[in-house]
Please model this.
Amino acid sequence: MILETGERKIEEFCIFYRITSMNRKSEVRSQKSEVRSQEPRVGSQKSGENMVHFDRIQQKILLIMGLLILVLSGLLIYQGSKARQSDPVDSTITGKQVWEGKATPEVSLVPASIKVYVIGQVRHPGVITMQEGDRVTDAVDLAGGCLPEADLNRINMAMKLKDEGMYYIPFVGEEISSEVRSFLSGEENDAKVNINSADQSLLETLPGIGPSKSKKIIEYREVHGSFKSIEEIMNISGIAEKTFESLKDLITIR
Model:
């Protein structure tokens, strides 16, 4: 656009120059004819002087036109570059740019929430909401910390938590079965308690199940045989529907 404008200006100067030259030539011819008719010898001398004078005028006109063209072209180029620099840049990241690797999609750094069950020698046992990457020591702190009788030498406090995992804090001198040890070591902390084979200490890791109820569960098995379904545990005195709701996701019969 800028170059086209410059070319039009140059063409207009050229047309103006041609018209001016033609007018000057016609004036010179008329002057020549008049001088020749009146004073032949003197006229030829004056004609030569006029031609020399006209050549100088042409040179001045050409010089002025050249300077004007240069100045005009410089102004047009400067304005064009200034206009390009002032154009707004679209900084919007499109989906195509992300797909082609031109932009990095934003990644959420917030860890996912998980729920774990902390029981045993803690001040506030129960289900606790934690975050992925948290460890047993974090869950114990959130459960109010350990009681004075807690034996922390028998549990891996640095173990990472797992969603739906159960973590039992034993007391000093407590006899722990092999099944409970697997929970303490983290080997089966996301497993369910088998109410057909669990001993008293493991049953007591379940919410709402203390020494009295755990003994009743074992006695029920001895009298009636293995549980046929997890709902059958409600046949035991003291285990109602409310207690079963807190147990159903933590127990199994297989």
